[in-house]
Amino acid sequence: MLSEERIPEKLYFRIGEASRIVGVKPYVLRFWEKEFDLVKPEKSSSKQRLYRRQDVEILCKIRRLLHEERYTIEGTRKKLKEFSPLQVTVKPEARCLTDLKNELLAVRALIREQGLMK
Asked: In sequence order, which ranges of 1-118 are alpha helices (DSSP H)?
C-alpha cells in the first residue's frame, strides 16, 4: 500500500488503480462506498467509477483504521468524523469541469473501441 503522501499526482483514479494504491481488492472499495458516506466516486458516462484524489486519501485512512489500528466499521465511521475538514463543497465550476472530463473520457473510450487510438 502506498502512503497517503505517495499517491500519484492525478485528479482521478479508476477502481483498479485506487484498489492498488489502497492495498485492497476492488470489491472492498465498493463495499466501503456503501458503509462510509465520505467516499463518493464520480461515475463516467460509461458508468466507470472515478475516484478523486481526496477519495483515495480517505480510503487510505479507512484501510489504516480498519486493518492496522483494528477499529470496527462503526468505530472507523466515528473516527472519520474527525476528518470532516476533508469534505469540500463542490463549486458549480468544478462540477462543470468534472462533467467535461467525464465526457472526454467517454469519447476517448469510444475512439479506443473503434481501434483508432491505442
From this structure: 15-22, 26-35, 53-63, 73-80, 92-113
